[in-house]
Design a protein that fits this description.
The complex is a heterodimer of chains A (403) and B (167).
Chain A: E1 17-21, E2 33-39, E3 42-49, H1 57-61, H2 70-74, H3 81-96, H4 102-131, H5 135-155, H6 175-199, H7 203-209, H8 217-222, H9 228-232, H10 239-242, H11 263-290, H12 308-313, H13 315-326, E4 335-342, E5 345-352, E6 361-365, H14 367-372, H15 375-379, H16 384-394, H17 398-402
Antiparallel strand pairs in A: 1-2, 2-3, 4-5, 5-6
Chain B: H1 6-17, E1 31-35, H2 40-49, E2 57-65, E3 73-81, E4 86-94, E5 100-102, H3 111-122, E6 125-127
Parallel strand pairs in B: 1-4, 5-6
Antiparallel strand pairs in B: 2-3, 3-4
The chains are: A mainly alpha (403), B alpha/beta (167).
Chain lengths: 403, 167
């Protein structure tokens, strides 16, 4: 990046071609721009330009009460919004010392793992498209639709979900939601199996992806990578295991790791994570059976909005409702960092609170932003078509990249 | 949890740096201490390269602005020792009129964009950074928008005053 040639187009010594990859290249996933210096098909060097959809979420968050920040988090990694929502709720709960009941934790785990599956489905499906295999993507999109239907049952929304509230959920999962989750657990595995049969041993796919953009674990750690792409290099860092949140310590699952850190390993790691997510969801459903029914939020009337009918008929509920909406609640003056394992890495929330209605400072540690910075340096020496595949397998989401 | 407790970490740090770091606190179990712009590079290098501590993972660099303080700009580092599974937070406060701090890009390549982002929003000059230019905002921008003096919306509005937000 530093030794990017700065010869102008008219310079007789210039023997490379400047190529604008983006801002709206169809194979890129959102608005990315990379200015590449090309020597034939090979990339000599490149510079990434980002910030096309920067929306100043951190500044906006300083002027919003805690419960109004959840919709902002939706719009970061919009392929797995529920994980962002839950991460934010858990950050605030950590700040306010709210203990959520086990059943709430398990319900959250189900939603987060569904979100992880839908995130990885998109990534691996698109990876197939970028190698020229369109059919796998179409199989998977139908399954993502089923996940979105489950979201719809739970919260009414599909993409920008705003699922849950600080302290739990706004309502219990209904019977249809549970039925749909169970149906998904039955119907999805054969389709994922079929997808793997199409790709895993497919010679064209292997030759396009194996050995492409291989990364050593030392380099990946040096660039602060996290998530599936770090695990593909062989580092078993997963926030769900290292710092369990939302009762992940109660679950039995494995962390798949790769060996070479190339595009193929990332694909395999993501696929295996989907299988593990299915295991987790099944366990969560079994555990919920043993928990008391109907518990869907913590008993914290100071922070959790009471039901509307009580607000109109009950003095206490009315007072709490007023206080929560007007931001008259007492919050500790301290700072908190909370991380969750997002679809593509460690999603962290650094919240500095001064006791006011809104955060004094809120910083999002966005995995896409940090994972993407290696893209231009690692593209040097790569074929252009390999660089496109590398971009797909990094699973950079423009909304999270630019926040 | 990891093999390294916060107490051990504090012992190692005070033995090495003594008065040059502030008294550590532990909000929600995350060891937090402050240091100065002169010492920060040494602290980061010690934490990263010490054979026992091994804080080899830079989680995050960000900034914060307290206009009422003499040293008004804060730079906050989050480090993670993956082998010991311990996190640490380091804060450095510097003069808001002349915010300068040594870069961490010599230690972690990943610090590059994090520092560019902090420069973009708070105007912190990371000395020795290879390419300290704006990253998310447009290049023509003249202000550092996350500083407190820059309002989110039209400052003439009467319905969005700070006291409505509890401060």
């Amino acid at each position: 990046m530093i030794n990017h040639p700065i010869l102008t187009d008219n310079d007789p010594q210039k023997d490379t071609i400047t190529l604008n990859l983006g801002p709206t290249h169809p194979a890129t996933h959102g608005v990315f721009q990379n200015i590449l210096e090309m020597d034939g098909e090979r990339i000599v060097s490149g510079v990434s330009t980002i910030g096309y959809i920067h929306r100043a979420f951190e500044k906006i968050a300083e002027h919003r009460p805690f419960y109004q920040i959840t919709p902002l988090t939706d719009r970061m990694n919009y392929c797995s919004s529920p994980i962002n929502n839950m991460g934010w709720h858990m950050t605030v709960e950590k700040l306010l010392n709210i203990q959520t009941p086990k059943r709430v934790d398990y319900l959250r785990v189900i939603v987060m793992e569904l979100a992880r599956i839908s995130d990885h489905l998109i990534c691996n499906g698109i990876l197939g498209v970028d190698t020229g295999a369109f059919s796998g993507f179409l199989y998977l999109m139908e399954e993502r639709e089923h996940i979105y239907e489950i979201y719809e049952e739970i919260c009414g929304a599909r993409l920008t979900t705003n699922i849950g509230r600080i302290g739990g959920f706004e309502r219990d999962f209904n019977d249809i939601a549970f039925a749909k989750i169970k149906q998904f657990l039955v119907k999805f595995p054969p389709i994922l199996k079929e997808f793997e049969t199409l790709f895993n041993r497919n010679r064209i796919f292997i030759e396009r992806t194996s050995g492409v953009a291989a990364v050593d674990p030392e380099v990946a750690l040096n660039y602060s990578w996290s998530g599936p792409i770090l695990r593909a290099t062989g580092v078993d860092y997963d926030v769900r295991v290292n710092e369990p949140y939302s009762s992940y310590e109660d679950f039995d699952f494995e962390i798949p790791v790769g060996t070479k850190g190339d595009v193929y390993d990332r694909y395999i790691v993501r696929n295996e994570e989907m299988w593990q997510s299915l295991r987790i969801i099944q366990q969560a459903l079994d555990k919920i059976e043993k928990e008391p029914k109907g518990v869907f939020h913590a008993d914290v009337p100071e922070f959790y909005l009471p039901p509307k009918e009580e607000v109109y008929n009950n003095m206490e509920a009315l007072i709490y409702h007023f206080k929560i909406v007007m931001g008259e609640i007492e919050t500790p003056k301290t700072e908190v960092y909370h991380a969750v394992e997002g679809g593509n890495g460690e999603l962290g929330f650094y919240l500095v609170n001064d006791g006011g209605r809104s955060p004094y400072r809120l910083h999002f540690r966005r995995p896409s932003f940090i994972n993407y910075q290696m893209y231009a340096p690692m593209s040097a020496g790569m074929l252009l078509s390999d660089a496109i595949l590398n971009m797909s397998s990094l699973n950079v989401i423009a909304g999270e990249l630019d926040a | 949890m990891g093999n390294l407790s916060n107490q051990q970490l504090v012992q190692r740090l005070t033995a090495r740096f003594g008065e040059r770091i502030t008294v550590p606190t532990e909000p929600f179990g995350l060891l937090t201490f402050g240091t100065s712009a002169e010492t920060i590079e040494e602290v980061l290098r010690f934490l990263k390269e010490d054979g026992e501590l091994k804080f080899n993972y830079l989680t995050d660099i960000t900034g914060i602005h307290f206009p009422e303080l003499e040293l008004s700009i804060g730079v906050i580092y989050h480090l993670h020792s993956l082998t010991n599974n311990v996190r640490a937070r380091i804060k450095v406060f510097i003069d808001g009129n002349n915010p300068k701090i040594p870069t961490a890009t010599n230690l972690w390549e990943g610090a590059n964009w994090m520092e560019r982002e902090t420069y973009d929003f708070f105007g912190v000059i990371f000395e020795g950074h290879p390419n300290l230019v704006r990253i998310l905002n447009v290049d023509e921008m003249t202000v550092f928008p996350m500083r407190r003096e820059y309002p989110l919306e039209d400052p003439n509005r009467v319905d969005k005053k700070d006291y409505f937000f509890g401060r």
